[in-house]
Design brief:
The complex is a heterodimer. Chain A is an all-alpha fold. Chain A contains 13 helices and no strands. Chain A is globular, with a radius of gyration of 22 Å. Chain A starts with a helix and ends in a 9-residue tail after the last helix. By secondary structure, chain B is mainly α. Chain B is about 75% helix and about 0% strand. In chain B, strands 1-2 form a two-stranded antiparallel sheet. In chain B, β1 and β2 (about 45-50) form a beta hairpin. In chain B, α8 crosses α9 and α12 (about 240-250) packs antiparallel against α13. Classes of the chains: A mainly alpha, B mainly alpha.
Chain lengths: ~270, ~280
């Protein structure tokens, strides 16, 4: 396609994608407690407020702890499952892979409501740890997909060699398989972490009234009047996501993780 | 090393934890939700055990049928806009240098991970009178004074396209990046213009991918619940909003569950219908 047209098209898409973030970043440095764009004056006070204001700080920590633990649990569920499917010939076990992908493919409100009725019925509704399990189940798809991709990329003859040399399954896993899939494991964790950090409906339906994560806090703040802190939190989160995915790209082959062929065959 | 069928109980051990977690915390909650959809609402607590169809009967009223119709229409509109914008974009992106691709992918992933709350907040700021785009138009001199561009349908649609576009591109990406470049080269050698080659060679070769992408974006958009609330009027509320509302604010879990079950059925129905149309087209 025409080079100039392509450039215009990409620029327009870039403007569309960047516009909200640019405006929010502008609003976040406003001097006054109001949403003005272009910003009036320049102040980083609203960034400070994330850490000094008790409400925002506790929401930030709640979100971080939830995302760190939920992503870890998601990986703990996905890793043995992906390994089993790769190592063993058991077609019926694929059903668990489908179960791992289903929560993420349905409209999220359905998974959220299922978990809500479950926690309410069992009497655990509102406990912080229920949010961890709920997020882990909701996001298990991400490490499951990246890890399955990682396993399928392993050269089976390598494992064969180790086996011929007398290594047992456990040793092979530790010395051969684990190092090979580590990048996929890390990126699966990163994906689940970033999405959990920003997730609203599942967290809201499971612990919304007992624990305030940042997205819940922002939504509640939206209802009762805007404050520039929302804008600074937004910018902080976008930067955090860009940093994490940037690191994944820096240390791994991002296009390959997203389904392209390996870099060298292009 | 070949894959061997599991023989001893110990071979099944790795499966125990994942299978247990998925059954206990996904299958059982899903079944609970279906069961609750037949229960009766209990004003004192959550619900009381029963077997009634009231919740479904109530749902099949004109009001909820209208909401369902609007939700489906909105999701279809979002899917069509996203695929029409995202397909040429992804096609061109897949032909760029690896480095440029990585930059775009990181940007797309960062936007994809934005919470719906944050997207809603950002666009409501952009559409507002005090901090919005119209201020820019005033500065350029195209407008007299800034105006608010929301709440309305256009604002809801824009917000949802913004949310779903990165997702669309990432779903299309694997197929397009692996697309055989000789296909279009052949068409070009035979004298087709780039645009004609795109529509006569690339689009038909990607038929199934396109159908699958439309379905996925459709389901993704169907799940949107905050953007219609933040950027639209109550008349723009989707089924997801009503489900949340019934479950949390009206404490009517059985009714919310019935709507959720219905939403699953409609989703699966739409998927089946699209696949059917896709297959028919293939046979023709």
């Amino acid at each position: 396609m025409n080079k100039v047209l392509t450039r215009i098209y990409f620029t327009l898409i870039a403007i569309f994608l960047a516009a909200p973030i640019v405006v929010v970043a502008g609003v976040s440095v406003n001097e006054k407690q109001s949403l003005n764009f272009p910003p009036q004056g320049f102040s980083l006070a609203w960034y400070g407020a994330i850490f000094t204001d008790a409400g925002w700080r506790s929401a930030l920590f709640a979100s971080l702890i939830l995302a760190l633990t939920a992503a870890a649990l998601a990986v703990a569920i996905a890793l043995p499952l992906a390994w089993f499917l790769w190592r063993r010939l058991a077609p019926w076990a694929q059903i668990f892979q489908l179960l791992g992908i289903a929560p993420f493919t349905l409209p999220p409100v359905i998974t959220a409501l299922g978990l809500l009725t479950f926690w309410a019925t069992t009497g655990f509704y509102g406990q912080p740890w229920t949010a961890v399990i709920s997020h882990a189940i909701f996001f298990v798809t991400l490490p499951l997909v990246t890890l399955s991709l990682g396993f399928s990329a392993i050269d089976r003859s390598l494992v064969e060699a180790a086996s011929t040399m007398g290594a047992d399954d456990r040793t092979i896993f530790r010395t051969v398989v684990l190092p090979l899939i580590m990048p996929y494991l890390v990126s699966g964790y990163a994906f689940a972490f970033v999405l959990s950090l920003n997730e609203y409906i599942v967290a809201y339906m499971t612990v919304g009234f007992t624990m305030e994560t940042l997205p819940i806090k922002i939504f509640n703040a939206l209802r009762y009047g805007y404050t520039p802190v929302m804008a600074s939190v937004t910018v902080l989160f976008v930067l955090m996501a860009a940093l994490i995915f940037g690191l994944v790209a820096r240390f791994g082959d991002l296009p390959k993780l997203l389904g392209a062929n390996a870099a060298d065959d292009k | 090393m070949r894959r061997e069928p599991p023989k001893t109980a110990l071979d099944y051990a790795p499966l125990a934890f994942p299978a247990g977690m998925l059954i206990l915390f996904f299958v059982v909650p899903f079944a609970t939700m279906i069961a609750v959809s037949f229960f009766k609402r209990d004003p004192a607590g959550f619900y009381s055990t029963a077997f009634v169809f009231d919740n479904y009967a109530r749902f099949i009223s004109t009001f909820f049928a209208g909401v369902l119709g609007f939700s489906l229409m909105l999701a279809i509109a979002v899917a069509v806009v996203c695929v029409s914008l995202g397909l040429p974009f992804t096609y061109l992106l897949a032909r760029m240098s690896r480095k440029a691709q990585v930059v775009w992918l990181v940007a797309l992933l960062s936007i994809l991970s934005l919470s719906e709350v944050i997207i809603g907040f950002a666009w409501s700021t952009l559409f507002s009178r005090t901090a919005g785009i119209t201020n820019l138009l005033v500065i350029i001199g195209l407008m007299e004074k800034p105006v608010a561009l929301m709440p309305n349908f256009g604002a809801v649609l824009t917000g949802m396209v913004y949310q779903a576009l990165p997702y669309t591109v990432l779903v299309l990406y694997p197929a397009l990046v692996r697309l055989d470049p000789t296909l279009t080269e052949a068409a070009r050698t035979l004298g087709a213009s780039p645009i004609k080659a795109f529509f006569t060679v690339v689009v038909p070769a990607l038929r199934n991918t396109l159908i699958a992408t439309l379905i996925m974006v459709f389901i993704f958009a169907l799940g949107s619940y905050l953007l219609p609330q933040i950027l639209g009027r109550p008349s723009h509320w989707t089924l997801s909003v009503l489900i949340t509302d019934q479950a949390i604010y009206q404490s009517n879990m059985p009714f919310a569950a019935a709507m959720a079950v219905f939403l699953v059925l409609v989703t699966l129905g739409m998927v089946a219908l699209t696949l059917l149309i896709g297959r028919k087209g293939e046979a023709a």
